[in-house]
Amino acid sequence: xxxxxxxxxxxxxxxxxxxxxxxxxxxxxxxxxxxxxxxxxxxxxxxxxxxxxxxxxxxxxxxxxxxxxxxxxxxxxxxxxxxxxxxxxxxxxxxxxxxxxxxxxxxxxxxxx
Length: 113
Description:
Blueprint: E1 7-8, E2 11-19, E3 22-27, H1 40-46, H2 56-62, E4 70-75, E5 80-85, E6 89-90, H3 100-103, E7 111-112
Antiparallel strand pairs: 1-2, 2-3, 4-5, 6-7
C-alpha cells in the first residue's frame, strides 16, 4: 500500500479544487505544523530528576515553553498540580476582562508571549 501526502509550508494538502476556474489546494493549517518536537522540552524537563527536585513547583514551569494547547497533570506523594500550556495572549495589567471588547484601546490589545 502506498500513500501520497502533499505538503506545503502552510500544512498538509487535505483536498484540491478550483476557485474562479483556477486550481487551488485546501490546506489543513495547524499552529503546531513543523513544531511538533517543541513539546520535547517539557518532557525532557519532567524526566530530569534534577529539574523536578521542586516537585509541583518545578512541574509548573516544566511546560512553560510548550506552545501546544494541552492540560498537563502532576501527582506525587505530597502534591498535585495542573498546568495549561499554550501560546496564550498576555493581557496588559490595565485590561478589564469584563469589558474587554467594549472599551477598546491599547490596554485591551493582547500580545503573544
